[in-house]
Amino acid sequence: MTIHEHHFGQAEPRAGEARTRTVVVLTAVTMAVEVTAGLAFGSLALLADGLHWASHAAALGVACIAYVYARRRAHDERFSFGTGKVNALAGFASAVVLALFALMMAAESVRRLFAPVVIAFDQAILVAVLGLVVNGISVLILRERHEHREHDHEAHDHNLRAAQFHVLADALTSVLAIFALLAAKHLGAVWMDPAMGVVGGALVARWAWSLLKGTGVVLLDRQAPPEVLERLVAAVESDRRLRVSDLHVWSIGPGYLAAILSVAASSPCRRAEVERLIPDDLGIAHLTVEIRDPEDDGG
User: Fold this and answer.
1) Tens-place pLDDT, residues 117-132
2) What is the DSSP letter of 149?
3) Cβ neighbours around 100 below 10 Å, total
4) Cα(40)–Cα(47) distance, integer angstroms
5) Is 244 helix (H, G, I), strand (E, B) or coil?
6) Rounded Cα distance, 257 and 259, in Å
7) Based on the domain organization, do 142 and 197 belong to the same domain?
8) How many domains does the chain have?
9) Does residue 144 sit in the same domain as residue 281?
């Protein structure tokens, strides 16, 4: 028996891999500079921000590892539908890190509202500006290079989306920090610093929740959106001999779907005839068709 491969293009480098790798290097270099400067000049602000960058470098590193692992294991027969879900798994892990980061931001900000600390404004503003510049460059590197079509693989790349959220979270933190520090320094509104931390934590938590939902749908094999199911059923039943009696469609990787289709046929019908009815733009990479006699169809 000949068994066809199930890698579905995962063996090829993805568009986001090289960009994510570049951002990891940029993040790691910034981390090293800030930690080194913090230790050399005795600056706790620089040291703390450097350790913060280290957490994001680690999360982005996970994204890079996921890209490489999925590509190198794409032909491994132990993965029934290829390694596409490695992408979603890495995205889910990054979402958890983002959620923890949001909680830590909010908790520390609330603590500082009730127990303010002395802030070295000039130094802290310099750190925030440096972070914003690096994150601005990272955002430009990771941004999509083209308009997304309905089944564009990059549009479904949860790993790339997670990397973008990490960079955006850092950029947001820097923007809010600069605003709050300037207000505190020039207007005496010291409370703005922790208040902006709470706001930033809430926004990052929202991004984390969005990413958790998106990756969770893939990892739990949730049924495809209703519009995909409706189009598939309509396409198959355009042949008046056929009626869809059972249908399962789920994601097996970025931009790839698998489908199990049970069809009741009122007259002899070949599997290839059913396959030709499936629209190419639905993104179904693996299709299993069962053709049944209407008398045997239980509904």
Assistant:
1) 777 777 778 877 888 8
2) P
3) 12
4) 10
5) strand
6) 7
7) yes
8) 2
9) no
